[in-house]
Structures are given as structure tokens and as C-alpha cells.
Task: inverse folding
């Protein structure tokens, strides 16, 4: 069992008591909600006549169903409009802050909370969304939860949880040119697989991880869940503190030193004990692309799609299913696979640095998106959009043939008008390449970094970004 | 207090394959709703349609498995999104317990809260069970939640359930809200002890 890790310290600080079931009642410092997984929770609260106990510790925004083009109300999709009205009513009635469309603060929930300084080291964070793991980038312990658990947090500010084991994933060394945080996590997933994290929290460590910006760290932790780990985190350091400083909800000046001291104290000790440790080298990581139907089916852009023999025997049916669904053959190079759609955005890669990287690729390449490709850029929040426009990024994108949209989850999960159709294949900066994920039951997804999506859009096919940016 | 869930008896429905994610269990377009009502008929919708187009039949469409109560799945079942709509859809289709090689964690937690016991067994044992059900869809199975056993055709399979959830299901404590509310005064103490609450 792990000892003296950040996970252990934060868990112990938030443990209320042991429940009769043997599980731990865990206090949740920050609860985030959105329109998709909360309406049924509020309905259950009403049925059971339960009040929201700490309304100031829950923050709401809308993202999954929000259209990224025409945002006029009522929405064309009546079901989406009904969900919007439900969260507007539920938050108004319970005193929960809602960052609604047009407030200047709306966006993908996992982008909104960090950019406002709500997410801080040492907190427990819960949200009815599996990508809540994102907040671990700050040294918070963050969990995706289901709707019944959203009700539990609203009603009690606590969850019934089983303690996780801790696996340290160390990545050391300098990343090569064109290799980003997204490539680091796709590489880790390709090595560890999508099941290995079940029962674990992932502590991402090592010089490569600590050299990443906060935005890069969020990309890494965001996809811990794709490896099966409900929770991923990085010990807070100077980069973390500098990011938080001055944001809306950052500790005020007179509390700042106290806050930093506490944040430093909850980091894993040098002699912390882990349940497992794995180590990777940054030098082995290329720009990485998925070829299959799980985020673990990825490979370096210079490589060929692996033969079935390269996988464990248990995985054989899934690998064969992936070849058939993706219509890709073992031995075929991933570079050169033609794409129909290019999507830049999502809680994984919809932050300002992601957009800057993609815009830089457009400028280095110089061309425009071919007519055969639909390419669009969706800022992760209204704030990201404002900054991007102030920097002129939107003009770079539109000049090179990309559409520039409003903030939302967009085609990451396609609960809104942004969808693949038929057998279309997308180059996507999002997090999941599951069958049907991007809105067409037979649509196909290649996951990659925003820079790689940009070059794929411009070339109309999967392309090594290093051929453009070197 | 919710009801004690100690035994589930009924026929099985096999859904083969590892890493079946919650987007496949319930595609995102069905999440545009403010209630879970009606999700049952859409469980595995796109997988079902695609098999139909290929002239094949998904187990959830197969007449022989209608009315089954025990889903038998592969490894890492329910991975991906936290959507409770996925276990809700399976439950509302009629499933009362799931046996798998392993479960994704959030999916498992959602099933704890819904009172749908999830048992794990080895890949070989699960495969044998799936084959037995496919060979004889009328096969009656019974699950003893406290013993974590699955009995069928004269054999008893020793499966596994983690202690905490097992106790929650068998003692009617799977709806955790009541227990969590009981700790309200201790919750206040913990909140007061956390430095960031006052920042």
C-alpha cells in the first residue's frame, strides 16, 4: 500500500469517517457540474426533499450540448434546450453559480475551473464527467463520478469511495521537437494499455512531466482515465503556483504564503512508497497517433500499424475489430492515411497553448485546408476565445481554411450539432476514438496533438508535424 | 434504507468482447435527456444496428435472450465516460446483475449506487459461462451475492466482489446518501480543518 504520496496525504486530509460498508466518506472540496449529468441528480434531490448543503462549493457551466455555431435561444435541438433550462432552473433555485453562455466565463468544465483558479493543489475535486482527472495537474485528487454520486455530493459534499493504489509513471528527459504533452500521454497509453489503471491513481512524475506547462500537464492528467485510472495527478511545484497566482479564486495576498506552504507540504515525499513504478524515456516518444478504437491503440507517426502478434492474446479480437472498423491494415504506415475532418478543441486540447501550437503549424506550412477536408477550431472556453482573438489566432485559422467557432465540447463527443457523418475519418485533438464516439455510428477517429491535427488538415492526410516545423 | 440484494436468479445474456466502452453501451445522442426513463431500449443501439446490417444479431436483440437478468461481459467493461446513463440503460433493459472479467471503475461505482451487483471471474470462467448460455439460452443461473458465487447447470463458480460494495448490496446500504447524511457533523469538522476553505 502506498505511503506519504500526495494521494495519501490529500485522501487522509479529506477522510470524514469509515462508513459501515467499509468505504471511506470523503469530503469534496470542489464540485463541478454541467448540463448532461446533473438534471437527474437535482430531480433525485427534489424527490428526497434534500437541500444542497454547500452551494458555494459547487460551480456549474454548460458545455456538452452547447452549439458552437448558432447559439441563439431557444436552441434548434429541443432536447438540448430542455437541458439548458433545467440547469438554469436548478442552479438558480439552489444558489449554485452558473457560468452560462455569454457570461464571458463559460466553457468546457475542465478548462473553466482551472482558468478561474478554482482548481488548487491539495483539493478533492469531483464532477459527473470522467475527464475530471484533468484537475490532478494541480496536485488535486479528482474523480469522475456518476449522477447518483452527483446527488450525494450536492446533498452531503461527500462521496463514498474506496481508496486507490498509486502507480508512479515517470517520464524523464527532453521531448524532441514537435513532441507535445498529448504525445506523452498517448505513448503512455500505448505502453500501459487501457485496463492497467483500474484501481489505481496515476502519479505522473519525472523531468519531462515537470518541464511541461500547466496546460500540458492538464492534457496528460486528462487522459489518465483512458488508461483506466480514475484519477491522475502531478505534484505541485513552482509552475503550478505561478499559474494560480492572480486568478479569480486564487488565495488572496495575505494568505498566499500560507497557501504555498500547504501546497508544498501535500506533495509526495522523497521517500514516498508506491504500489507500482514505471519509467519511460522522453527520447522514445514521437508525435503519436491512434489507429484503432481505444486510446491505447496508438503508435509513433513514423511507424506502421502493428500486426496482431504484437498484442497480448486476450486483445486479439479487439485488435481485429479495430482493423475492420477503421479499415486499416497491419503493416500499413499511419502517415498518409487520408482524413475527412479535422477537429481542434476539447478538454484535452482546447486551451490557448493548443491553439497557438496549431496556428504556428498553419503559418509554418503556409497552405490552406483542401476542399475535401472540413477543419474547425473550437476554443475551450469563452476566455480562451477572447485571448486567441486578441492574438489574431482566429484570423490565422480562417486564412488557412479552418472554421473558428464558439466554446464547447463540440465534436469530442458530438452531443451537439458537430458530428462526423457516415464513414468519415477525423484527425482529432480530443480524447476518445471509440466506435461511434464522434456522432456517426460508423465514424472513425484518429487521436493526435493539436499541431498534428493542423498539419493533417492542411495536407489532407496524417503527416509528421516535424516535416513542417523543423 | 434500500432493499437488501442477496440473490439474483434468472437467465443470462452474453455480450462478448473486451474494452466495451460506455459510448457503445449508450451513444451520446441518447444523453440529451433530463430523466433516465426510456434508456433501456437504446442500450448498445449502434452495435445492434451495425450487426443487423451485417445480417447478424446482437445478444440484446436476440429473441432467445429476451427477459434475461444476468449480463455476462468481458474485461474492462464500461470503460470511458462516467455517464450513469450506461448502467441505467442496461438496468432498464432488464439486467439485475453483471458478471465480467473486470469492470471500469466509474461504471462499477455507478452500479453500486444503482443496486446492480457486479461480479468478476477469470477470462476462462467467463468464456465458459458465455458459451454455456449460448448453447442453452434457457439456462437458469443463480447468484449468491454474499458468497460471490454463480450456480448454473449443476456447477458453482466462485466469483469475486470487493468487500465494501458486497456489504453495501447485501445489507441494503448501496444507496449511500443516507449514510453520508449521517456524518454531517463530522463533515463540518473536516471542512473546518481544510485550510483552503477560507482562502
Result:
Amino acid at each position: 500500500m502506498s505511503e506519504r504520496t500526495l494521494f495519501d496525504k490529500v485522501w487522509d486530509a479529506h477522510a470524514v469517517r469509515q462508513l459501515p460498508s467499509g468505504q471511506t466518506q470523503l469530503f469534496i472540496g470542489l464540485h463541478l457540474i454541467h448540463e448532461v449529468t446533473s438534471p437527474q441528480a437535482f430531480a433525485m434531490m427534489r424527490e428526497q426533499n434534500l437541500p444542497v448543503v454547500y452551494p458555494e462549493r459547487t460551480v456549474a457551466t454548460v458545455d456538452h450540448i452547447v452549439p458552437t455555431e448558432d447559439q441563439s435561444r431557444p436552441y434548434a435541438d429541443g432536447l438540448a434546450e430542455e437541458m439548458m433550462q433545467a440547469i438554469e432552473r436548478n442552479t438558480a433555485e439552489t444558489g449554485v453559480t452558473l457560468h452560462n453562455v455569454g457570461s464571458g466565463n463559460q466553457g468546457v468544465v475542465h478548462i473553466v475551473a482551472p482558468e478561474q483558479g478554482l482548481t488548487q493543489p491539495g483539493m478533492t475535486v469531483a464532477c459527473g464527467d470522467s475527464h475530471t482527472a484533468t484537475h490532478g495537474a494541480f496536485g488535486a485528487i479528482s474523480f469522475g463520478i456518476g449522477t447518483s454520486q452527483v446527488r450525494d455530493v450536492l446533498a452531503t459534499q461527500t462521496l463514498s469511495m474506496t481508496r486507490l493504489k498509486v502507480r508512479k509513471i515517470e517520464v524523464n528527459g527532453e521531448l524532441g521537437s514537435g513532441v507535445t504533452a498529448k504525445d506523452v500521454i498517448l505513448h503512455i497509453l500505448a505502453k500501459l494499455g487501457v485496463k492497467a489503471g483500474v484501481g489505481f491513481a496515476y502519479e505522473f512524475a519525472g523531468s519531462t512531466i515537470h518541464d511541461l506547462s500547466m496546460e500540458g500537464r492538464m492534457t496528460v492528467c486528462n487522459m489518465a482515465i483512458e488508461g483506466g485510472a480514475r484519477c491522475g495527478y502531478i505534484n505541485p511545484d513552482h509552475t503550478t503556483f505561478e499559474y494560480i497566482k492572480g486568478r479569480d479564486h486564487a488565495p488572496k495576498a495575505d494568505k498566499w504564503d500560507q497557501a504555498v506552504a500547504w501546497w508544498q507540504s501535500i506533495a509526495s515525499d522523497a521517500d514516498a512508497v508506491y504500489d507500482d513504478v514505471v519509467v519511460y524515456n522522453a527520447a522514445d516518444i514521437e508525435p503519436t497517433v491512434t489507429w484503432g478504437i481505444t486510446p491505447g491503440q496508438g503508435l509513433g507517426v513514423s511507424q506502421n500499424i502493428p500486426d496482431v502478434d504484437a498484442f497480448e492474446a486476450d486483445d486479439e479480437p479487439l485488435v481485429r475489430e479495430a482493423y475492420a472498423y477503421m479499415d486499416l491494415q497491419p503493416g500499413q504506415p499511419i502517415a498518409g492515411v487520408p482524413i475527412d475532418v479535422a477537429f481542434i478543441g476539447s478538454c484535452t486540447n482546447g486551451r490557448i497553448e493548443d491553439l497557438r501550437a496549431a496556428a504556428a503549424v498553419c503559418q509554418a506550412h503556409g497552405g490552406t485546408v483542401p476542399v475535401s477536408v472540413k477543419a474547425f477550431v473550437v476554443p475551450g472556453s469563452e476566455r480562451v476565445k477572447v485571448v486567441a482573438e486578441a492574438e489574431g489566432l482566429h484570423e490565422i485559422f480562417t486564412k488557412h481554411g479552418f472554421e473558428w467557432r464558439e466554446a464547447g465540447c463540440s465534436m469530442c463527443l458530438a452531443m451537439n450539432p458537430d458530428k462526423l457523418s457516415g464513414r468519415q475519418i477525423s484527425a482529432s485533438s480530443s480524447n476518445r476514438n471509440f466506435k461511434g464516439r464522434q456522432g456517426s455510428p460508423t465514424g472513425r477517429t484518429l487521436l493526435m496533438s493539436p499541431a498534428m491535427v493542423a498539419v493533417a488538415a492542411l495536407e489532407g492526410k496524417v503527416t509528421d508535424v516535424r516535416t513542417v516545423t523543423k | 434504507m434500500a432493499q437488501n440484494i442477496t440473490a439474483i436468479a434468472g437467465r443470462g445474456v452474453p455480450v462478448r468482447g473486451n474494452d466495451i466502452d460506455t459510448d457503445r453501451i449508450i451513444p451520446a445522442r441518447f444523453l440529451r435527456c433530463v430523466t433516465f426513463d426510456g434508456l433501456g431500449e437504446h442500450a448498445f443501439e449502434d452495435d445492434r444496428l451495425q450487426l443487423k446490417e451485417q445480417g447478424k444479431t446482437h445478444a440484446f436483440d436476440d429473441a432467445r435472450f429476451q427477459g434475461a437478468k444476468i449480463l455476462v461481459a468481458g474485461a474492462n467493461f464500461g470503460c470511458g465516460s462516467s455517464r450513469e446513463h450506461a448502467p441505467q440503460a442496461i438496468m432498464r433493459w432488464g439486467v439485475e446483475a453483471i458478471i465480467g472479467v473486470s469492470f471500469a471503475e466509474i461504471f462499477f461505482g455507478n452500479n453500486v449506487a444503482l443496486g446492480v451487483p457486479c461480479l468478476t471471474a477469470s477470462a476462462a470462467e467467463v468464456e465458459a459461462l458465455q458459451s454455456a448460455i449460448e448453447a442453452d439460452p434457457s439456462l437458469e443461473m443463480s447468484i449468491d451475492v454474499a458468497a460471490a458465487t454463480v450456480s448454473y447447470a449443476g456447477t458453482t463458480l466462485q466469483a469475486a466482489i470487493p468487500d465494501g460494495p458486497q456489504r453495501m448490496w447485501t445489507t441494503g446500504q448501496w444507496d449511500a446518501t443516507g449514510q453520508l447524511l449521517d456524518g454531517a457533523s463530522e463533515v463540518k469538522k473536516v471542512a473546518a480543518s481544510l485550510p483552503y476553505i477560507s482562502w
